[in-house]
Amino acid sequence: MIYINNEKKIKELKQKISKDNICVFLDYDKTITSSESEDSWASTANRKVMGQEISNDLDKLYEKYGPIEFDYSMNEKEREKSIIEWYDKCMDLYYTYHLTEQKLKQSIENSKLILREGVKDFLFKLYKNNVPVIILSAGIGNVIEQSLKQEECYFENIQVISNFIKFDENGNMIKFCDNMIHSLNKNIDKSGDLQLKEKIEAKEYRMVIGDLVEDIHMMGEYPESESLKIGFLNKNVTENLEIYNKNFDIVLTQENNFYDIEKYMI
Q1: According to the model, what pLDDT value does residue 126 have?
Q2: What DSSP assignment string belongs to the chain?
């Protein structure tokens, strides 16, 4: 199902937007990947590579904290506190079970990451038109980059801003990212990459595509009339449709794909 919430604005933007004046912000988990896909956190510790125990521990954390991401009835501060707690506990598990660079590579190769239908063609079109693409994700950056390379759609116009795991010269995990990106704090304005900031600011219009209401903040502070916001509503459709329609110009439910988005593109 597709919900159009601002038809006049969408028509006006379609007439104004060109390949030369737009940049695109994308979430990864459950946006670039399908609603049925494994997420990048789970893909970091595949059970065949890292063992069943860590997989079970990650599943337990997901069962406890996962629903909180989509619980918009929850107090905002308590919700963010829970999400940070979840991320911290996941990171601790990677240390506890001695994740290495080689194990991470093997985990990704054995993962069940599934790209959403049409996303490869979508990314290729943006590449051919030299449109800057910023993947701003609360997932694991190593997974995102390797998975896109494996699918042959990690193009030169794409920049990934995410949580990267760092390893020493022996391939042992030594550090997680300096500033954790979680699902509720993604914002390009917080990026210290001045070169990227200049590239983005040179574009008049912005498109953002995500699966959480908070994903609209990926593109930073930007005029409503110059931004197109598209959201995939994968869970709790009945409960969350109203808040998604309020925040996104276009809302697509889980059966929709990137071919449904292309008609609103350049």
Answers
A1: 95
A2: -EEES-HHHHHHHHHH--TTSEEEEE--TTTTB-TTSPPHHHHTT-HHHH-HHHHHHHHHHHHHHHHHHT-TTS-HHHHHHHHHHHHHHHHHHHHHTT-BHHHHHHHHHTS---BPTTHHHHHHHHHHTT--EEEEEEEEHHHHHHHHHHTT---TTEEEEEE--EE-TTSBEEE--SS---TT---GGG---HHHHHHHHT-SEEEEEESSGGGGGGG-S--GGGEEEEEEE-S-HHHHHHHHHHH-SEEEETT--HHHHHTT--
Q: Which two tokens stand for residue 112?
A: 């069940």
* Per-residue pLDDT at 192: 64
pLDDT attached to residue 6: 86
Asked if residue 118 has pLDDT above 70, the reply is yes
Domains of the chain: 2-262 (3.40.50.1000)
pLDDT digits (tens, 9 = 90+) for 188-245: 877 667 778 788 888 999 999 999 999 999 988 888 889 999 999 998 899 999 999 9
